[in-house]
Amino acid sequence: MARAYNFNAGPAAIPLEVLQQAQEQFVDYHGAGMSIMEMSHRSALYEDVNNEAQSLMRELFGIPNNYKVMFLQGGASTQFAMLPMNLLREGQPAAYVHTGAWADKAIKEAKLIGETVIAASTADDKFMRVPSLSEIVVPANASYLHLTSNETIGGTQFQEFPDTGNIPLIADMSSDILSRPVDVSKFGVIYAGAQKNLGPSGVTVVIMREDLAQGSPKSIPAMFRYETHAKAKSLYNTPPSFSVYMVSLVLKWIKAKGGVAQMEQYNRDKTKLIYDAIDGSGGFYKGCADAKSRSVMNITFRLGSEELENQFVKESEQQGFVGLKGHRDVGGLRASTYNAVPLESCQALAQFMKDFQQRNG
Ligand SMILES: *Cc1c(COP(=O)(O)O)cnc(C)c1O
Q: What interactions and quaternary structure are annotated (predicted)?
């Protein structure tokens, strides 16, 4: 079987070992005579999966005890709405750092719920950088500050996070969660759709400080209240059980690889191969993001013409590469190098880039 060199942005690569393990357990999960998808979410076997996924998440990400770990549905996009519904208070604006396409979507949803302010924006630089911490201005009465730790489409990433004191810091980490160690205690909420770095689509991880998960306004329907899910250990209604199970396997895989600090080193090694190919090309390839803001997860770059970019995509596909076309909103090329993308794929891509340049440079 030939596995593709998968650089998809999301849904994205899942470790081969995880897929094989799921395949082994697919028809008969732990001798139950049925698959995990066919059993009650109230069964002991599924409760173990749910508990294990939560505790591995805590262990690997160093989540303090006063935080809840929830597995919700509706993707990160639903969090764009749920967060202001639950946490945006009257007379206390929600502050947002505007760094690109995903931040923009989060801001638009919050505006439907209440007052918002832009704490910093890099629109003037076409979102090709993240702001420095000193550029971020948060009103003293803000309900929270929201930022996007990694802009999946533009290819920028925060390397450090602001200290917001008593104001909860909220981060959309959909495209870089568990790619590097993070001091979770600096955050009120961290959330991520699973389909980039954690497994398949269908489940969203929400890590929330306990005090924030309490006291959701009573006017919000049950499914949209964090309180509901926190109290029920993410078993209020039928959970996306197969997706949670897959996340638990991915977490075990990360643990076996040595944990999140190891992942970071591995990711930096992978990314360096491709950024070096860009920087060493004498201008044939041009990186999109400012050097200091470059993402370790999504590498965006361009060629001299759109025609040449199309040719790059076409030839890459012929050689077994998938997902290198940039997002339709920004064009160009993009390689997503999430945790599960093997070093070998990045070596192959760097080599392909050099060969392509030689043929066309
Ligand atoms: C993919 C992505 C989202 C959207 O996730 P869905 O699960 O499709 O709603 C939000 N934020 C970021 C940073 C993303 O990369």
A: Homodimer.
- The CA-atom distances, in angstroms, between 83 and each of 86, 112, 188, 327 are 5, 12, 11, 26
Domain count of the fold of the chain: 2
Catalytic pick among 102, 104, 270, 325? 102
Q: Is 336 in the pocket of ligand 1 (CB under 6 A)?
A: no
What's 343's domain CATH number? 3.90.1150.10
Catalytic residue flag (residue 253): no
pLDDT band at 2 (very low <50, low <70, confident <90, very high): confident
Residues 237 and 264 placed together within one structural domain of the fold: no
Same domain membership, residue 194 and residue 45: yes
Q: Residues 56-78: what's their mean pLDDT?
A: 98
316 pLDDT band, cuts 50/70/90, is: very high
Domain co-membership, 290 together with 151: no
Q: Does 350 score more than 90 pLDDT?
A: yes
**Per the structure block, which two tokens stand in for 307?**
């025609």
- Of all protein residues, whose CA lies closest to atom 3 belonging to ligand 1? 76
pLDDT digits (tens, 9 = 90+) for 327-337: 988 899 999 99
Measured from the Cα of 153, ligand 1's closest atom is 15
Q: CB of 173 within 8 A of CB of 123?
A: no
The token duo for 199 is 């497994």
Atom of ligand 1 nearest to the CA of 152: 15
Residue 173 Cα, ligand 1 centroid: separation in angstroms?
9
Q: Is residue 2 part of a domain?
A: no
